[in-house]
């Protein structure tokens, strides 16, 4: 990077800020000078305009357009070929299966470990410290996490000393080192481990907050009645945090369905590890198969939809109860 | 009601009461029971230590390795650091400052990440706050429906909008960028504009929803009083609403900051991938592809890319957690 480059970048940011400030200032000025007739209406429109234009251009129109593109071939004629491809080609089917494996494993395991950990450290000494440790991966980018774990999965051939932790352990127990990322199907599982590593902290923090919300009288009452820790957990705590469990589970499910960065960075979808979000990128932006990419995006939308609706319903019911 | 949704996660009290009553009939307290309880708490401690260690080791290994000489990283495991001691800052020097064309030259990409994140966060925040204010305090019948529609937009995965948005940008923005480059040659033709706009667009539905929750909780008297005194909506917005909404703005700003900083997908599609624009995550992903075996570079580069969000995370943890819990469904 030369000094000129840096100057150019700083200039861009300064200009960006200036233009942005000018736009907002002008807009507010116009809003305040709105004509008397229908004043509230104009003011409302003024405040909403920037956000609505952005949403229309960035989400509403593109989503509709993608929905159309999914049913067109390269020449713009209507066709179901993209979906036929998705459900008949072995590679594409594998992508769908992998996505299902991801979404079947990540939410369950993350939530389970997160819940167990939250229970274990609840009201213990150093609770805060324990929390931070598990929670830290949340702040790390998926790309950063991928590099961290690639190093764990690193493979050295022959008798050379293993520098990847996983293979070092395998060798220490007398096994032969494995090319983890190239070996199907273990590679998909190992990518899933990364996602679990990231999401468990999220589950833990949310569930920990929920556990603290369970009235301690109930726990004490159960304790006096001679129940053991497991019974108290199953019969008092779990029902008490059911709502949070649902939110955590569905949120992680949605994040998992959309997982892209990990697969892209670790294997780029090779060795039978691709998932829908990664394949969408590959088809639309690498292979110039816009129709197939759009069809995959549409499938992603269809998979996410019921979970989101369920999630919103749960949240709404809880608001009504209170 | 507190600022951001998640703090108010839900406990079904009634249900819990019922269940508690049910277990009331179980066996009485025994000596064995008490011993068992102590045992479980010891098992719990051990289990939590094991999990904590498992979770830390990978990052720890990366950190240690980033300070080891290339030769040692290549030939020995980082856990043998005491048998094979060695410490160097060369890896960091290489990835950050080395000007040779084969080195990662992360400096430029860090500047890009900062530039992208700065406006990517600011634009989202201001536009969302304006919309949230309008939704909360300027009354119109159909506005509620519009708000529900905006909320519903959160269900659209990013992937749904990438292809058409890229087409729009290349027909509308590209000529503007070229024109700007002609006037101010120091600004490259590839600039930050598409990334700023894309991040703002994708961040808005969630931002509007969260800020609306908070802004609609501002006591109506305050705003009414200002209006009666002749303040315009613009004045009310800047002098009353924004200052009062600072906690919510901070929470969301931090969440959006981390989100934009850690993003790879949006960058891959809208940045063009040169060091004029690409953020550090994109560079790191690229290095994994091209220099996958040069662990002395990868470890140092990865650590540099995660250190800034980690600093934000540790220093503003409370806000961060709030924002994150609230924003969990984004993307």
UniProtKB/TrEMBL annotation, chain A:
Gene3D superfamilies from the UniProt entry: MetI-like
Main localisation: membrane
Compartment(s): Cell membrane
Upper classification of the organism: Bacteria, Bacillati, Actinomycetota, Actinomycetes, Micrococcales
Protein name according to UniProt: Sugar ABC transporter permease
Coiled coil: none
Domain of life according to the entry: Bacteria
Entry's transmembrane regions: 6-29, 41-64, 100-120, 132-152, 189-211, 241-260, 295-315
Record-stated family: Belongs to the binding-protein-dependent transport system permease family.
InterPro entries: ABC_transporter_permease (IPR051393), MetI-like (IPR000515), MetI-like_sf (IPR035906)
From TrEMBL, chain B:
SUPFAM superfamilies: MetI-like (SSF161098)
Highest taxon listed in the record's lineage: Bacteria
Alphabetical list of Gene3D superfamilies matching this protein: MetI-like (1.10.3720.10)
Membrane topology: Multi-pass membrane protein
Sequence intervals crossing the membrane: 44-64, 106-133, 145-173, 193-215, 236-261, 295-316
Pfam family, one: BPD_transp_1
Chief place of localization: membrane
Residue span, ABC transmembrane type-1 domain: 110-316
Keyword field: Cell membrane, Membrane, Transmembrane, Transmembrane helix, Transport
InterPro entries: MetI-like (IPR000515), MetI-like_sf (IPR035906)
Location of the protein in the cell: Cell membrane
Family classification: Belongs to the binding-protein-dependent transport system permease family.
PANTHER family attached to this UniProt entry: ABC TRANSPORTER PERMEASE PROTEIN MG189-RELATED-RELATED (PTHR43744), OSMOPROTECTIVE COMPOUNDS UPTAKE PERMEASE PROTEIN GGTD (PTHR43744:SF4)
Protein name in UniProt: Carbohydrate ABC transporter permease
Native source organism of the sequence: Agromyces allii
């Amino acid at each position: 990077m030369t000094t000129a480059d840096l100057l150019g970048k700083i200039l861009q940011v300064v200009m960006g800020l200036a233009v942005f400030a000018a736009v907002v200032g002008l807009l507010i000025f116009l809003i305040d000078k709105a004509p008397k007739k229908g004043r509230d209406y104009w003011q409302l429109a003024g405040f909403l305009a920037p956000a609505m234009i952005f949403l229309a251009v960035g989400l509403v129109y593109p989503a509709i357009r993608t929905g159309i593109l999914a049913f067109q071939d390269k020449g713009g004629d209507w066709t179901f070929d993209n979906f036929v491809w998705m459900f008949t080609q072995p590679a594409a089917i594998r992508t769908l299966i992998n996505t299902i494996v991801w979404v079947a494993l990540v939410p369950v395991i993350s939530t389970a470990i997160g819940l167990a950990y939250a229970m274990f450290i609840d009201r213990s000494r150093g609770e805060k410290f324990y929390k931070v440790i598990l929670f830290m991966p949340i702040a790390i980018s998926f790309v950063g996490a991928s590099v961290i774990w690639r190093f764990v999965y690193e493979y050295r051939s022959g008798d050379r000393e293993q520098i990847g932790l996983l293979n070092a352990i395998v060798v220490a127990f007398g096994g032969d080192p494995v090319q983890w990322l190239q070996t199907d199907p273990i590679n998909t599982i190992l990518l899933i481990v990364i996602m679990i590593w990231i999401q468990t902290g999220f589950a833990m923090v949310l569930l920990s907050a929920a556990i603290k919300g369970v009235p301690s009288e109930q726990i004490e009452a159960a304790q006096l009645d001679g129940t053991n820790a497991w019974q108290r957990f199953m019969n008092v705590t779990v029902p008490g945090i059911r709502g949070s469990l649902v939110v955590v589970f569905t949120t992680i499910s949605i994040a998992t369905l959309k997982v892209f960065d990990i697969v892209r960075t670790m294997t780029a979808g090779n060795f039978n590890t691709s998932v829908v979000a990664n394949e969408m990128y590959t088809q639309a932006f690498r292979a110039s198969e816009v129709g197939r990419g759009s069809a995959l995006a549409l499938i992603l939308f269809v998979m996410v939809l019921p979970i989101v609706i369920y999630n919103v319903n749960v949240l709404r019911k809880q608001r009504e109860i209170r | 009601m507190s600022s951001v949704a998640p703090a108010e996660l839900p406990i079904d009290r009634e249900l819990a009461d019922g269940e508690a009553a049910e277990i009331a009939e179980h066996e009485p307290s025994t000596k064995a029971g008490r011993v068992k309880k102590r045992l479980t708490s010891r098992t719990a401690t051990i289990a939590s230590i094991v999990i904590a260690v498992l979770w830390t080791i990978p990052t720890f290994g990366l950190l240690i390795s980033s300070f080891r000489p290339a030769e040692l990283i290549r030939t020995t495991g980082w856990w043998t650091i005491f048998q094979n001691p060695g410490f160097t800052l060369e890896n960091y020097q290489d990835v950050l400052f080395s000007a040779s064309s084969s080195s990662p030259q992360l400096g430029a990409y860090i500047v890009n990440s900062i530039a992208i994140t700065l406006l990517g966060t600011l634009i989202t925040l201001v536009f969302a706050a304006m919309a949230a204010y309008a939704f909360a305090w300027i009354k119109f019948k159909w506005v509620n429906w519009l708000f529900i529609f905006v909320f519903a937009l959160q269900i659209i995965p990013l992937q749904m909008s990438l292809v058409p948005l890229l087409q729009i940008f290349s027909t509308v923005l590209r000529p503007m960028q070229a024109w700007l480059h002609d006037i101010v040659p120091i600004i490259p033709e590839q600039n930050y504009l598409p990334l700023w706009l894309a991040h703002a667009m994708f961040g808005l539905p969630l931002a509007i929803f969260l800020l609306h929750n908070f802004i609609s909780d501002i006591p109506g008297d305050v705003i009414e009083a200002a209006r009666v005194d002749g303040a315009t909506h613009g004045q009310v917005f800047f002098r009353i609403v924004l200052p009062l909404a600072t906690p919510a703005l901070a929470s969301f700003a931090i969440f959006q900051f981390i989100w934009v900083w850690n993003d790879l997908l949006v960058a891959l599609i809208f940045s063009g991938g040169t060091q004029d624009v690409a953020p550090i995550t994109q560079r790191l992903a690229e290095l994994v592809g091209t220099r996958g075996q040069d662990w002395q570079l990868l470890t140092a580069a990865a650590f540099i890319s995660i250190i800034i969000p980690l600093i934000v995370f540790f220093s503003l943890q409370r806000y961060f957690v709030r924002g994150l819990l609230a924003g969990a469904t984004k993307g």
